Model the fold of this input.
Amino acid sequence: MAVQQLPLRLRPMSSVIKHPALSPIRFPTHRSASTVSKPAPISSPPNDTPSTTSSSHDTPFPTPSQIASYDPLARARARTTQLPPSRYRFRPPRFDRGPLHPHRPPPASSPDSRLFYPGPFSLPRFAQTYTSTLRPDLMTLRYTHIPPGTPRLPAPQRLRAWDASSPYYANRPLRKPRGAQHLPLLAVPITYRTVPAVSRITVAAIVREAADNSAYLHVAGMVLQAMTGRRAEVHFAKKSQVVGRATFAQKAGKPIALSVQVEGEAMWHLLGTLVEVVGPGIKEWRGMKGSSGDGAGNLGLGLSEEVVGSWPEVEVNYDRYPPKMIPGVDIIIHTTATNDRDARLLLSGTGLPFYGKHRN
Done:
């Protein structure tokens, strides 16, 4: 390739190729069996010929007239077509296609990430208590030590097999366990990696009157937003039915309930308000029922309309809510525990009392 055909950024490098010792060997374009191509003789360079090199430092500085004539604003105003928005905005890819892909999404801690969430702006006291005190205590109470090299026991059969009393039982699938509609979660040994923790809290409200009057739905959404700081999600009825003795008619497609899920900092604030402010303010409050779990580490309790009205964020603007439209709410605390016993042990450490018969 001739030097004139090289790009501008490669021309300074072409001076190195000018050395006769580094010049390429030329071969004839056509060959036949009767002719043998001979390469051109390579001449050795003279010893007194210096090797010429070029550098970017040899480029002269712009002249004062060139500096004065440089005006990027005038150049932008003279542009007739506007540049695309993607020229100035970085849109990270939606999916991570692996470490070998040239374009990968940034980490979640980067402000350019789609998963970026600003914060935390404060450190709740309940979060500090769990990290510094409650988590080590739970690991000490429920720790299961497995020495290295201990063989794992085979998992027991959880489904019941059919007996051979009838030929119709042959090749049938296994049956569910007795007295249980669903299989419970397998018990996970508690180690420093699997200490139970509160993952999220769900606040839900069933608004039956919203089918006839949408004002009940708006008031319930404002109450849930004041309690959690999140906008509530509306749920619609899937089918029409009559609940009770014709006291409430549910119509398909009508709004029937609201729910909010909170995590992280807002979750700890909500749990602290429930345990330290709202709970002690209830007369003869016994706490959460011991059998309120679902067997998978999720516990729940219900609050009446009067208790919801005494919530600090609702009580401060109590005049804005019609008293007869404030709904009762159900609070479901989701934990990473695999059984109700560990979940109750976790919540009792935060100060939430339990009463009645405990179900494990």
User: Anything to note?
Assistant: Residues 148 and 173 are 37 Å apart (CA to CA). Residues 125-142 form the longest helix (18 residues). Strands lie at 198-206, 233-236, 241-243, 248-250, 255-262, 288-289, 298-303, 329-335, 354-355.
